[in-house]
Amino acid sequence: MSRPDIVLYTANTMNGWKPLIFLHEAEIDYELVNVDFSKKEQHAPDYVKMNPNGKIPTIWDRSEERAIFESGAILWHLAEKYGRFLSDDPVERSETLQWLFFQVGHIGPIMGQAMFFQRIAKPNGNEVPYAIDRYVTESRRLLEVLDTRLKGRDWLVGSEMSIADIATYPWARSYFWATVDIEGLPNLQAWFDRLDAMPKVQEALQLPEPRPSAFGKGDIAAAAKANAARFASDVKKD
Ligand SMILES: N[C@@H](CCC(=O)N[C@@H](CS)C(=O)NCC(=O)O)C(=O)O
């Protein structure tokens, strides 16, 4: 039996879910490797050969015998390889890449810092109110940009889901974990409802292990405690 082309190294995080959503929605066979942060597997020498930044996700494409890192580049690679979720029309294609880059350049880093300062730094003894305020406020502004873009549209670009939606959804949908208020953003909420109702997207969000707390469900206090402990060594205390 032939082995799948794609080996996906990932974890249950906002960046980690992106390739999972693509692969499940496109029904592509792949091999899943759960990268265990508590064992710092993302910094293991063999892993860093594939992903010099020591982060997840990474894919190894057996058909080309090469690794691809950075979630946006991974989605782009998968889109080209499988001819899914990226239009051939030059304008639509360009717009999809613009919204993909908007996610990787703005939404991910800013919401990621909102999460870091509240969910990791603060419970580990380094509370920085100015940073929390700045990143939460900026996250809300970015979600307003999405809400405006989604007015009168089902998807960020064109008439079908694209890699821009796939990249943006796990981050924006984790607004609870970043403590960003989404009141008064009806177009964003409608887009969430659309993606929340897609069984394969939801199947992907359960992998490699379910993490309901990211979406405001389950035992939040226990999840917050475990998450803070998982990344305690990343917090500088002076
Ligand atoms: N720009 C990177 C960011 C990747 C990233 O920050 N991954 C996080 C999880 S969402 C990670 O690996 N964290 C573990 C660590 O920092 O050691 C991408 O989009 O792939």
What does this structure look like?
- By secondary structure, the protein is α+β, with helices and mostly antiparallel strands.
- It has two domains: 77 residues, 3-Layer(aba) Sandwich (Glutaredoxin); 145 residues, Glutathione S-transferase Yfyf (Class Pi), Chain A, domain 2 (Up-down Bundle), CATH 1.20.1050.10.
- The protein is 51% helix and 8% strand.
- The chain contains nine helices and four strands, in the order βαβαββααααααα.
- It has a four-stranded mixed sheet, covered by helices on one side.
- The N and C termini lie far apart (56 Å).
- The mean pLDDT is 96.
- The site of glutathione has 14 residues, from α1, α3 and α4.
Short key terms for the protein model shown above:
single chain; 238 residues; alpha+beta; Glutaredoxin; Glutathione S-transferase Yfyf (Class Pi), Chain A, domain 2; 2 domains; four-stranded mixed beta sheet; 9 helices; 4 strands; globular; binds glutathione; GST_C
CATH structural architecture of the largest domain: Up-down Bundle
- CATH topology of the largest domain, by name, is Glutathione S-transferase Yfyf (Class Pi), Chain A, domain 2
Total E-strand runs: 4
| Main sheet makeup | 4 strands, mixed
Keywords: Transferase
Protein name: Glutathione S-transferase
InterPro entries: Glutathione-S-Trfase_C-like, Glutathione-S-Trfase_C_sf, Glutathione_S-Trfase, Glutathione_S-Trfase_N, GST_C, Thioredoxin-like_sf
GO molecular function: transferase activity
